[in-house]
Design a protein that fits this description.
With 619 residues, the protein is mainly alpha-helical. Helix content is 64%, strand content 5%. The protein contains 25 helices and 9 strands. Helix 7 runs antiparallel to helix 8 and helix 16 crosses helix 19.
Length: 619
Amino acid sequence: MRHRHNTQTAAAALAAAILAAAGCTVGSYPPDEHNKLAKPFIHDSAALDPFGVLMAGTTSVKTGQVFNLSDGVLEGGTEVQLLSALPEFGSDALASQEQVYDSLIGAFTAPIESDIGFDSSKLPPVLWTEHGTLLNRAERMLFRIRDEREPATNPLKYIERLGLLLYAPLQLNFAPQADRAAAIVQRLNETPGYLQVATSNLQSASNARIEAAREATNGVINLIRGEIADGMPSGMKANFESAADSAIAALEAYRNSLADLPSTDDWRAGAQLMHRKLELDSGRPLAPIDTLIEEITADFETAHSSLVSAAEPINRRIYGGSRPRDDYRLINDVLEVLEGENRARSTAGMLQQMAEDTDEAREICNEEEIAPVPERLQLRVVETPEFMRVSVPLGGSLGPSAAASDNTAVVWLTPAPADASRAELRSRLTTNNIYQLKLLAMRYGIPGYALIGSLASDMESDQDKLTHMVEPLPGFIHGWPIYITETTVGTHYTGDVDFIWRKYKLQTIAAALVDIQLHAKDLTMDDAQEFLTRRSYMESSAARALLRSLEVNPAQAATAYFGWKNWQLLRAHYQETTQDFSLTSFHGKALRAGSMPLVEFSYAVSEAKGRLSLDGEEE
């Protein structure tokens, strides 16, 4: 299976020859046909994602615009304010969304010889990459509605979206503080209607998602009563309290209504849906599921051998004498000492250590010229908000947005549950030992997630930000932090940190393998737990948290894995097409380009010196 952009040239040439022979004119001028559809779509589709618009650094868009071909500008339309908006999921809104996505997909994938078709391979570089980016966005969003049936089957997503839209204005500086506080109050006022629509939409859900949604709902209630109440300006207290009371009552009603939602123990996505989701979310064609499993298994075995090789000298250093009789004992003997003696002592200690590690990572990136970390970028390390802890079992990040005024990212570290046993707490502290905290600081802070929004603020125009930061490609967003952590460790660290990275890498690959086998095959949770703990050396509590996350979010770990591999391919392509290769130059250029599918991405960062062929050929 090849990318559409790589296969149309021959078809276009054939169609041109046939039409020319018949004395006909071939199609329309590709840039005109593209711009008529794409430029309005950028704004129309952005209006459907208030959170994405805020992360793109703006607070409003214009819908229903028309692209003036002669002047090259958008005209008309209606301005939609999104600073305080919640997503709309009513039946009419969903039908409208489908129409927006369908109209772009229909024209962008129409045969070249048809009335509406045009040869996208003839587009200039900027439009060619835009074409692929927007087509992928439209296909992903339509897939969510029609194939995954997310509005009808996923009660957790409604709550996570609401939680993020209440949480982000507390943390990010995309607008003046007073405006952000007012936006929170307005969203609280709209919460009862939003949740009423959600309840009407939901038809069924897995028991796993229902339980996760209940927990997340409690988390949003605690967010309102805690951080939001504490951060509300004194002059807005009365308005806030009234809105908060109504919102909390609606949240409690939503949580209680989930008991009546038809439920099932069947949480598996299925092979066909899983494969298509992985293709869309990673932004590239993929081999059949069985082949993917074989390839990831081979990668896992290579990573395991690398971990064993690194463990042998450390084992001799610690214990001396002979090697343990099998690899499992060898690695666990080493981990028992390295992680046990260097575990964090408390959740507060983990947060403090991770904050110090983000500063260290900044210095390494600048001194080793790994990535261009702006001086303006600041980080806060906090506990993961409760409403996100099922989906974010270990750590995560939010922001900064691409607004010029927004220079602070929030790094999340997920603590052990409040009711965790002493053994579970010790397990979490052991998992987040001082070496792993360095890796998490890189992945979730600098130069990982936090650098994406910071450098995106340097994009040339708001339209570019809306194109590449609204509903960004998951593979780009989640693959980058793993790739850049690997690059940073490989450039700077040796010894114990390198050893823990090899374990972390093994677990990252294992998570992807388990993700696919859980949803596309018949791997049981018990077998997955044993694989993660016995073959990837994951602490039991961490493995359980990961599996619960994968149960409710199919393709999450596998998409991050394929995104990581995409970044490796992208870098190799860039090195082949650039005479004076520089890590920091490549990374800066890539992040400032924004998210897009791999083939388009390779074209964007290599200045049109060749489109990456996924079959190993340059075009």
